[in-house]
Every structure is written in C-alpha cells, then in structure tokens.
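Example complex used in Figure S2.
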Amino acid sequence: MSPALTMEDFLIDIEKRAYRMVALATSSHADALDLLQDSMIKLVTNYQNKPSNEWKPLFYKILQNRIRDWHRQQKVKNLLFFWKNDEIDELQPDDFAEIKPQQPENDLAKEQQQATALHLLARLSVKQQQCFLLRSWEGLSVAQTAEIMACSQGSVKTHYFRAVTKLRRQLEEDHDITF
Amino acid sequence: MTSPSKNKMQPNKNTEQEIIKQLDNSVDRLSVNQLNDIAQARVAALTKLNVHNVNPEDNIKQSGISWSEILKSYIVERVSSIKLALPVAASIALVISLTYFQAESIPELPVAMMATEFPLEDFAMLEDLEFVTWLAENETSVAL
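Predicted assembly (323 residues):
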C-alpha cells in the first residue's frame, strides 16, 4: 500500500470485499449496507489522520465490532419478541445466485459454484466465517486477525482450522468435490 | 515420503483457494444496484471527511466573521434560550409547590362524613341524648 493513498482510494479498494463480508455475517443487504456505512464513517471521522497503512486493520476492527453489536442486538430482539416467528430461514445456495435470464451454460455453472461457496461460508459460525475471510481473503496475519477480532492468537488459529475443515467436509459431502 | 500433516494440509489449502476464487467471483459479479448502494455509502462517509478536514479557523477566515461576532451571537442565542426557559421553569415550580402544599394542608374528610344518607334511628337517639343531657344540667342548676 503506497503512503500517498487517499481515503477515497482506500475505501474504493476495500468496499466490495467488506460488503461481501458483512453480507455473509448478517444475511441482509440493508443491514450490511448500514454496518458498512457506519464503519466507513467511523474510520473517516476518527482515523483519517493515521498513516494509510494502518487503515485496513483499523477499518476491519470497526467492522467486526459493528457485526458483533448487530448480532447482540438480534439476540436481544429475539429474546424480547420471542413470539414473533421472524427467524431467517436457512440460506440455500440459490439465495446467493442472482437471476439473470438467457445466460450461457458456462456462466450458470460458474454462478452455481459461487453460490455454493457463499452458502457454505454462510453456514459457518460468525467467528469461524470472519476469521476465514480475514485470514484467507484479506491476507491478514494471525496477530492482526486476533487484534481485529478481540481474541487470542490461539483462538484465531482454532477458528481458522475449524472453518477450513468444515468447508472441505461440506464440499466433499454435499457437492461431491474432492481435493 | 510426505508427512501425514502435509497430506492433511494440502486439501485444506485447495479448499481455501477454491472458496477464495468463488469469493472474488462474487465480488466481480455484484449487481448494479448493490454497487450503487455501496458507492452511496462511500460517498456518505467521504462527505464527513470533507467536513472534518475543514479547520474551524479557516472556515471563519473564509466567511469573514470575527471571533467577537461569533461569541456575541453565541451569548445572544444563550440569553434568548434562557429568556424562554426561565418562565417555563418558574411556572412548573409554582404548580408543583401549590399542588404539594394543598395536599399537605387540607386533611382528608372521614368516610363516615361523606355519607349522604344517615339512618333516622341515629337522629332520634341523638335527640334523646341531647334531651337527657339538658335535663341533667337543669337538675344540677336547681340543686345549686
């Protein structure tokens, strides 16, 4: 990351992946956007004067805190309004596939694979899922991930290992994909 | 000969790569609506950047307003709010104190006195009692 990176460039670079991460954690487009915007605003207002190479871990720390708060709120909401049956149905692979008519078969197959991968990620626990995304997708170190997720490095390693093992097993069992 | 741990790690690595590939694809294939929403969120955040970047002193210089004028307007604003708040607070305090002291000073009437209908027998007994008392007083005065 170059030192002359502007805040706008940084946000453009990170926004889509961050959106995907929150969308996987919340299973809701609207909530994901809210959390993403909140995190961006917090980064801009509080940490714009920090060196640009610190923005990424700071941004993801803010985002993870927002995701944690969101899950706490959902838990309280479910406790208070237990009679309301507004539980989100378990997501199916098709939920992640966007309907685009008249697509070539090749594209459809790719989309199906992508939907399957996202579906498997969505079925992981939030900690395992976010740990996997931060470590593998964002390429953050164990120490950085531990700092972002506010847990020990040992926990990060455990979450990550369990996430990868679970993903591999599900891919092999449900979709006949062997490695 | 490869170690068992290496054999075990290899499939995990492949799984990881496969999932990451699909994640990258999913980001590349976000819908136009999703992209627009994300861009709007970014723009909303960057407007805060512009607001926070502006130095208050620069802002004052640009607008040509002096510190004394700002202070004066601040005080005037405060005084006008005090002008409104004081009578409201005084009237609320007055109402509260009145209701409090009224409740303290006036004792509650006994329930028996609140009854509208007294039995006639009670009245007759009272009259008899008054007559007997009067007779007794008369007798004592005669005896004296």
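The two ends of chain B are 141 Å apart (CA to CA). The interface with chain A takes residues 10-12, 14-16, 18-20, 22-23, 25-27, 29-31, 34-35, 37-39, 41-42, 44-46, 48-49, 52-53 of chain B (CB under 8 Å).
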